[in-house]
Design brief:
Number of strands: 4
CATH topology of the largest domain: Glutathione S-transferase Yfyf (Class Pi), Chain A, domain 2
CATH class of the largest domain: Mainly Alpha
Order of helices and strands: EHEHEEHHHHHH
CATH architecture of the largest domain: Up-down Bundle
Oligomer: single chain
Number of domains: 2
InterPro entries: Glutathione-S-Trfase_C-like, Glutathione-S-Trfase_C_sf, Glutathione_S-Trfase, Glutathione_S-Trfase_N, GST_C, Thioredoxin-like_sf
Structural class: alpha+beta
Protein name: Glutathione S-transferase
Largest sheet: 4 strands, mixed
Helix content: 40-55%
Low-confidence stretches: none
Strand order of the largest sheet: 2-1-3-4
GO molecular function, one term: transferase activity
Keywords: Transferase
Distance between the termini: 30 Å
Strand content: 5-15%
Mean pLDDT: 94
Radius of gyration: 17 Å
Pfam family, one: GST_C
Shape: globular
Number of helices: 8
């Protein structure tokens, strides 16, 4: 059986932003049997010798497929799609486009959005945050404008079919859902709504809230 190492306890500020959500969503979409091993991040469990043998970077998520261990959320999603034969095109070039958009979500788009998220989460504890935020907003709006144009005549990133690339992009966009930068991008808003209306995402979020004991409003 697949075992996902995910968060069992985490700082309340990052609840709803953790990257194990991406893998959980894919597993629910694919209908693969799995179990979650909840890790206690604040206690330092990710720094244990046992866990560092799985991921030397002390990060989640980690997937264990009967002894085959894989880290990095995009790599895990691509692996699961290949394993199940779903959420990725059947042709070589189509799969290459999915890989392309996985990279784009985590580099081109997430780079400024994640920095903006950290500035907002840290607040006054980051003395340079107020100074850096306007530039990050401008950077974020530039990449979001490019994504808006791409989605002009597409339901999803790679045509009309939902893929693992959309899981990555939708979860990246969640990072700034309260930052005000998504306003003015109607195609992105509609795209994100399509993704998050999927039953598998609803199940994922419900299970996540229960596992972490988090207030539901904190992750919506």
């Amino acid at each position: 059986m697949l075992t996902l190492y995910g968060f069992g306890r985490v700082n309340s500020k990052v609840v709803g932003f953790t990257r194990d959500l991406r893998v959980l969503w894919a597993l629910e979409e694919l209908g693969l049997p799995y179990q979650v091993r909840g890790m206690d991040h604040p206690s330092g469990e990710l720094r244990s010798e046992e866990f560092l043998r799985l991921n030397p970077f002390a990060q989640l998520p980690v997937l264990d497929d009967d002894g085959f261990v894989l880290t990095e959320s995009a790599a895990i999603l691509l692996y699961l799609a290949e394993k199940a034969g779903r959420l990725t095109p059947t042709d070589f070039q189509g799969r290459a486009q999915v890989t392309r958009w996985c990279f784009a979500a985590l580099s081109s788009v997430e780079l400024p959005l994640a920095q903006l998220l950290m500035v907002d989460l840290l607040g006054a504890s980051d003395p340079t945050g107020a100074q850096r935020r306007p530039g990050l907003v401008k950077y974020s709006e530039r990449v979001l404008g490019a994504l808006e144009s791409w989605l002009e005549d597409r339901a999803y990133l790679v045509g009309e079919e939902f893929t693992v690339a959309d899981i990555l992009m939708a979860t990246v966009l969640r990072e700034v859902r309260h930052a005000g930068v998504l306003e003015g991008f109607p195609k992105i808003a509609a795209y994100r709504a399509r993704c998050e209306e999927r039953p598998a995402w609803v199940r994922t979020l419900d299970a996540y809230v229960k596992r972490l004991g988090a207030p539901e409003e904190s992750v919506r």
